[in-house]
Amino acid sequence: MIVIFLGPPGAGKGTQAKMIAARRGIPQLSTGDMLRAAIAAGTELGKKCKATMDAGDLVSDDLVTGIIGERIDMEDCKPGFLLDGFPRTVRQAELLDEILEKKGRIIDVVLELSVDDEELVNRLNSRVAETKAKGGEVRSDDNEETFRKRLGVYNEQTAPLVPFYKDKGLVKTIDGMKSIDDVTAQIEAALS
Ligand code: AP5
To answer: Which NCBIfam families match (predicted)?
Structure first.
């Protein structure tokens, strides 16, 4: 099973993908988490990406596609995997198609999480408040100004993936405004 989670920042992609991955025993591949891990480890990759991510822009298509291409070659991805935050541009989607075609694999479904902009900003503020309350480190791109920039980048560069995948008959739209449990139930129904 290969599932893509598509949606704006704060839509709940990570929350849902982690839960569904745990239930199905397949990995959740988050390019955002992979890049943040590279930054935290001080690798060359992390150094290359930090300024771009802090500004709320997208890192290069070739770079993220290279990371995903290597990751899905690993043994644990054989039964399937969930993509969270990738692809994010039409170019990334085309490159992913090329990678999967070479491996004889196909995307099963693209789950589009739909959430209003103001709710997204509320969720960002809650995430920041929760992280501070737990004494954790707030993401450097989780301030309202950068978050609104990320929303703009989503609308310009990532939203065109909805018609791209609709043309392939792969999109199922999930009402992401509902409670976390309700959204999980909608996703389970879409996957069954
Ligand atoms: P990335 O890490 O992918 O961030 P994002 O897409 O902006 O998404 P978020 O992690 O902010 O939100 P989410 O949808 O996962 O929501 P969450 O579940 O946390 O990307 C960060 C950066 O990395 C990019 O800007 C770019 O620079 C770079 N990057 C990454 N991938 C790239 C790529 N492919 N190409 C180029 N660059 C790339 O939920 C948010 C909050 O809401 C949480 O507090 C959660 O508890 C809460 N919540 C979730 N669901 C609900 C609900 N139903 N009701 C109420 N609250 C909810």
So the answer is: adk, PRK00279.1-3, PRK14527.1, PRK14528.1, PRK14531.1, PRK14532.1
Give the active site residue among 18, 48, 91, 139: 139
The reply to whether 139 belongs to the active site is: yes
Residue 113 — very low, low, confident or very high, per pLDDT cuts 50/70/90? very high
| Atom from ligand 1 closest to the CA of residue 53 | 27
pTM for the model stands at: 0.97
pLDDT tens string 146-182: 999 999 999 999 999 999 999 999 999 999 999 999 9
CA 171 / ligand 1 centre spacing (Å) = 19
| Distance from the alpha carbon of residue 88 to the mean position of ligand 1, in angstroms | 12
Domains and CATH numbers, the chain: 2-191 (3.40.50.300)
- The phi, psi pair for 30, rounded to 5°, reads -105, 115
* Residue 106: strand, helix, or coil: coil
Rounded to a whole number of angstroms, the distance between the first and last alpha carbons of the chain is 11
